[in-house]
Amino acid sequence: MRGKIVLAGLILSLSGTVASAQQKAFAPGPNELYCSGIVTSETVPHDTYVITGKESNHRITFAEGDYVFLNTGSSQGVKVGDQFSAIRPVQDTADVEWTKWQKSILGKMGTVWEDEGRLRVIDVRPDVSIAQVQHACSFVQRGDIVLPFVERPAPPLKPVEKWDQFAPANGKTLAMIITGKNFQQQVGRNDIVYINLGSAQGVKVGDYFRVFHYQDNHHEKAYEEPRFAFDVAGNLGPTVGFGRVPTKHTWKNVPREDVGEAIVLRTAPNSSTVLITLSLREMYPGDYVELE
User: Fold this and answer.
1) Which domains occur in the chain, in start order?
2) How far apart are CA 237 and CA 32, in angstroms?
3) How far is residue 13's CA from residue 121's CA, in Å, rounded to a whole number?
4) Per-residue pLDDT tens for 216-246?
5) Each residue of 256-272: pLDDT tens digit?
6) Terminus-to-terminus CA distance in the chain, angstroms?
C-alpha cells in the first residue's frame, strides 16, 4: 500500500519528467565514473586497508582533504605519490523486496562494493603510509579496503534522438534492474543502477541498454499489483468503476512501455554498473533492460 501511494504521487509529476527527458544526454564525470560502485562475484584482495586517520581520538570518518594511515609502506613497495582507491562491501539493511527474487538475484550477482574515495600517498614508513583523501564519494573509515587506483574510461555518449516510447523488441539480450546505487529503489536520469548481465554474457563498457516496462508485470511488486494494467483483483474493478477487459491479455499481446536509456560504465562477470542517461518516468527494480 505504501508503495502504491508513492507511485500515485509520482504519476502527478510525470509530465515534468517527460519534458526533462528530452534534454541533452548527461556526460559522465568523476563522480559517475569513480563513485559508481560495482556488484561482483570476483575475489577482492583484503590485504591493504585503512588503519585509522589523523585526529582519530574523536573522529571515525574522513572526508576530502583528511589524512588516513594505511597498513602498507616502503617494505611493500609503496612510494610517495602512489594513488589508491578505498572501497567497502555494503548490504541493504531494509528488509523489503521491491520485486520478486530481488535479494536472491543480487546475491548471485555477487557482493556490492561501494566506492569511497581516491587516496594519494604523501609519506611512507617501512610498514605504514600516510595518505590524503583526494576525492571522496561519501566518507572513508577504518577498515576500508584499499586497492591500487586504476583509471576508468569515460564511454562516449550518443546524442539523444527522437524517442519511440513503444518500440518493439529487437530480439537482443534482456536483463533487469536489480537495485540502484546505495540501494535506491526509485531511479531516473543521472542515477546509477546495477543489472544482472555482465562481461560473462558479452556486455562491454559503453554498451547501451533500453529500459522498458511490461504492461503485465507477472507478479506483485512493492509498488504494483500483478495484472493491475488490465483489471483489479476480485470484483473491485467493475464495482468501483476501475473497469476490466472481457478477455485476458498479457505482456505478450500488448505493447511494452519503453521508459529510458542507460550506458554501461563498469562490468563484472554477472553484473554491470549502468548510468541512466534518459528517463521518461521513474524506474524501479524489476524493470527490464534490452541491449541495443
Assistant:
1) 2-28+154-214+256-291 (no CATH), 40-148 (2.40.10)
2) 44
3) 48
4) 665 555 555 555 555 655 555 555 556 666 6
5) 889 999 999 999 999 99
6) 35
